[in-house]
Amino acid sequence: MTVTETIDAFHFGVFHVLQPKGRGHRSGMDAMLLASMVEAKGAIRVADLGAGAGAAGMGVAARLADAEVWLVEKMPEMADYCRRSVALAENAAIADRLTVIEADVTLKGRARVAAGLPDDHFDHVIMNPPFNNASDRKTPDALKSEAHAMHEGLFEAWIRTAGAILKPGGQVSLIARPESIAEIIDACGKRFGGLEITFLHPRQGDAAIRLLVSAVKGSRARLTIRSPIFMHEGESHRFLPDVDDLNNGRRAYGRIVRKQQPS
Question: What residue stretches are annotated with the Methyltransferase small domain (predicted)?
Answer without folding.
Answer: 32-178
